[in-house]
Design goal:
With 149 residues, this protein is α+β, with helices and mostly antiparallel strands. The protein is built from 3 helices and 6 strands; from the N terminus they run ββαββββαα. A hairpin with a 5-residue loop joins strand 5 and strand 6.
Length: 149
């Protein structure tokens, strides 16, 4: 399993993330191959690899799979579920070993509350995007959306 340490990025489950090939190689310490399994870890602060310790990362990560390596030089990662990081080992070559366990998904909002929160959010995105040329292209798509998921 590949470990991809990142800093200052949103890492969300069940989403697509894109990395430039060179950036992925630097972060993961190896080239990506389609269908590679991976874990994305978030660093607590920006550090060089040589400064990493077991406490350098947050205790929750996100699993994923390399779903595409496209000709434009990007790696597409399909993130999956969140995971608990039960143990971290920083090896002498600065690669990271993990002990992980599945973290259960928690439904923390009922459907009605989701709609109450989503509609104002969608309207704000529509308002902000209307200030940009691409906003016209996304307006109808945004209006069709009825939930965050």
């Amino acid at each position: 399993m590949i470990v991809v340490p990142v800093y200052n990025m949103f890492v969300l489950p069940y989403a697509d993330m894109y990395f430039q090939l060179d950036d992925f190689r630097k972060l993961a310490g190896r080239n990506a191959e389609e269908n590679d399994s991976l874990v994305i870890l978030v660093e607590k602060k920006d550090q060089k690899k040589t400064e990493w310790t077991e406490d350098s990362f947050y205790p929750i990560g996100v699993s994923g799979i390399v779903s595409e390596i496209n000709p434009q030089g990007y790696v597409r990662v399909k993130t999956l579920n969140r995971i608990n990081v039960d143990g971290i080992t920083v090896r002498s070559d600065f690669s990271v070993g993990l002990e992980i366990s599945k973290r259960p998904d928690i439904q923390d909002m009922d459907e009605e509350e989701q709609k109450q929160r989503f509609i104002p959010l969608r309207n704000e995105v529509l308002e902000v995007s209307s200030n940009f040329r691409w906003g016209e292209y996304t307006k109808e798509f945004m209006k069709m959306m009825d939930s965050v998921s």
